[in-house]
Specification:
binds adenosine-5'-triphosphate; 19 helices; elongated; alpha/beta; single chain; binds magnesium ion; 3 domains
């Protein structure tokens, strides 16, 4: 029989990323450990605070004992009760001082602790691959970072100030009652054990209902957000009423789930009220009968009944607290399991910050596929010489962007090598690689920061004058000057307040500042009108000077003047030469050039390949 192969998860982590634990429990311990002295101090203060609180009925009992004893005594009543009154005052004071000191420490610690967790998770997340981010929602990841960090501090707060104090209250009160009359302690102790166990069990059951209700609420929010995002479409299709009805349907489902969860909570409340009544009435009757039999004194009777009231006030909502802590732990688990995944692309141990001096790019026998079984490149080999300016053409989906992404190491090939200046790019640090290649993508996205900051992203130490100079070269200065706040205006999320062409010009300005030895343009001028493109082309030619350049373009006129053209077809390079050579050859490029008549590539009809297009 073949041996069952166990799939071992290889956990690789970028060297710069913090070594965060991969399970929620270890994750909490890891972060609590970093602030252990703070937590130790808080635990001690909270423990004293809870003990002071539960000792108060004992002090009251002592006062009563002194008062009831004093007639037999020659001692004046005030003298007799002095000590118990001092004890009572000290305990009350202790409750306030220790409780508030613990509160103060928590108030100082929690925001710091939370920020520390956010920082670490963010630093970890930064090293995830493009593939990871393309399969996750950015908003959801940000939300998870927040929830996870909040989860840790809130879990600790609940454990210390809620659960620990309940446990202390139970233990101390059982001891106090044991001193009074052991069976009374047994009664309260047994009650506490049953109450905690049943509360825990109810909370685990309730968790399922509240999780479903929470999911239904999130779904509603998702639908509303989606509808608001697409509100213009709804309006233009006259579908506002339809959208309201669509939401109503979801609200109806949500109501059903929320009701179920609320009914269950209500049942839990019934349990708590009944248990509290049993403890209250039970202790009262039991201690009354004990007093009646002379087994305990009046003072003990007061101690027993006030202890039971105190226990009830502490134990109130215990199930709810269990539920809340489950929720916090669930949030932590959620965040940890999504964010703390192995990093896909990490620098090798021996990776060097190699500096690219010439810019020679070689693909050697490269095999690459995004998904298993759907090969994009098969044994692709090509060399781009230093300083060569190369245009890539081919139908949509032929592999041009993939080619560029492999050079940028957005993905690693399954086999083969990509070599820059004689060094396999996997032997270079990613930081060095990315610092020396500039990319102008088809749809550049900008930060929601000022235009000045967005352009300066190319070189952080550039002066304002240098930024403006770069913007002028990229033909961006004129439109920036027309905006009210000029270089200091914000561009909206991802740059939505700018047109596609304006965004591209900002991206070009950025790259001019970066001045890297390898330049890649992936449809970089596609959003520009012909006149602006023509104007920018001169700048780009200037920027391309003495650099290795790769230009992906559908508009063949933008690449016709380059040193070399590679024609891609279904992941293969089917033609390679200068514009004139390829035209003279009368092959695929020639046919594309003819069909385009100076415009764009035709839309690929009926799955035709470039090589199958009609000849003259
Ligand atoms: N992230 C991805 N996951 C899975 N498949 C992908 C991914 N990106 C691209 N592909 C597939 O890989 C192939 C090559 O795509 P690529 O983006 O390189 O084409 P392209 O030549 O740049 O096209 P276009 O001219 O439209 O930009 C296509 O079949 C495409 O569907
Ligand atoms: Mg592309």
């Amino acid at each position: 029989m073949p041996k069952k192969v166990r799939k071992v998860k290889i956990f690789q982590r970028a060297a710069d990323a913090p070594a965060l634990p991969e399970t929620p429990f270890k994750f909490i311990c890891y972060f609590v450990n970093q602030f252990r002295w703070w937590y130790l101090a808080i635990i001690i203060l909270e423990a004293i605070h809870a003990t002071c609180g539960i000792m108060l009925p004992y002090a009251i009992g002592e006062i009563i004992r002194s008062v009831t004893r004093s007639p037999d005594n020659s001692q004046p009543i005030l003298d007799a009760i002095r000590q118990p009154v001092i004890l009572f005052t000290a305990l009350s004071l202790g409750e306030v001082v220790f409780g508030r000191s613990a509160g103060l420490l928590m108030t100082i610690l929690h925001p710091i602790h939370r920020q520390h967790i956010v920082r670490s998770l963010y630093a970890y997340l930064q090293h995830h691959s493009h593939r990871y981010f393309s399969s996750s929602f950015a908003g959801a990841l940000a939300h998870r970072i927040g929830e996870t960090s909040l989860g840790v501090t809130q879990t600790m707060q609940m454990l210390i100030s809620e659960f620990m104090s309940v446990i202390i209250v139970y233990i101390v009160s059982t001891i106090l009652l044991y001193r009074v009359y052991p069976p009374l302690a047994a009664f309260v102790g047994l009650w506490a054990v049953c109450f905690i166990s049943i509360s825990f069990w109810l909370a685990t059951r309730c968790r399922i209902y509240s999780r479903i209700a929470a999911a239904a609420r999130s779904e509603t929010t998702g639908i509303i957000v989606d509808a608001i995002t697409n509100l213009t479409s709804s309006r233009l299709f006259a579908r506002l009423g339809f959208e309201r009805r669509y939401l109503n349907e979801q609200l109806r489902l949500e109501l059903k789930e929320v009701r179920k969860s609320n009914w269950y909570s209500e049942r839990i409340r019934w349990f708590q009220f009944i248990s509290a009544a049993i403890l209250k009435v039970g202790t009262l009757y039991y201690s009354l009968s004990l007093w009646n039999q002379g087994a305990i004194t009046a003072a003990d009777f007061v101690v027993a009944t006030s202890l039971s009231l105190l226990i009830i006030s502490e134990a109130r909502n215990l199930s709810r607290r269990f539920l809340e802590i489950f929720e916090h732990i669930g949030n932590i688990a959620n965040g940890v399991l999504t964010i703390i995944q192995p990093h896909e692309l990490i620098d090798r141990d021996k990776a060097i910050a190699h500096s690219i001096t010439q810019g020679k790019i070689e693909f050697r026998q490269v095999n690459f596929s995004y998904l298993e079984g759907k090969q994009v490149f098969q044994n692709l080999s090509v060399t781009i010489q230093p300083g060569q300016r190369v245009g890539l053409v081919g139908f949509s989906g032929s592999g041009k962007s993939t080619f560029v992404n492999l050079i940028l190491r957005v993905f690693d090939p399954q086999s083969g090598q990509i070599i820059i200046d004689g060094v396999d790019i996997r032997d270079m640090t990613q930081e060095a690689l990315h610092a020396q290649i500039s990319l102008i993508p088809q749809d550049p996205s900008l930060f929601h920061r000022t235009l000045m900051e967005n352009i300066r992203y190319g070189r952080l130490d550039a002066t304002d004058e240098e930024v403006i100079k770069a913007a002028r070269k990229a033909h961006a200065h004129d439109f920036i000057a027309q905006i009210k706040e000029g270089y200091h205006s914000l561009v909206g999320e991802r740059g939505v307040k700018l047109s596609g062409g304006q965004r591209q010009r900002i991206a070009i300005a950025r790259v001019i500042l970066k001045d890297a030895p390898i330049l890649i343009l992936d449809e970089a001028t596609s959003s520009l009108d012909s006149i602006t493109e023509k104007a920018i082309q001169d700048t780009l030619d200037l920027v391309m000077n003495e650099k290795t350049v790769i230009v992906v373009a559908h508009r063949l006129s933008t690449i016709a003047h380059l040193d070399r053209i590679l024609v891609f077809d279904q992941g293969r390079i089917i033609e390679d030469g200068t514009h004139n050579q390829l035209l003279a050859k009368g092959g695929a490029y020639y046919r594309l050039w003819k069909m385009q008549a100076g415009g764009f590539l035709p839309v690929k009809a009926n799955n035709q390949n470039v090589s199958e297009l009609p000849t003259r």
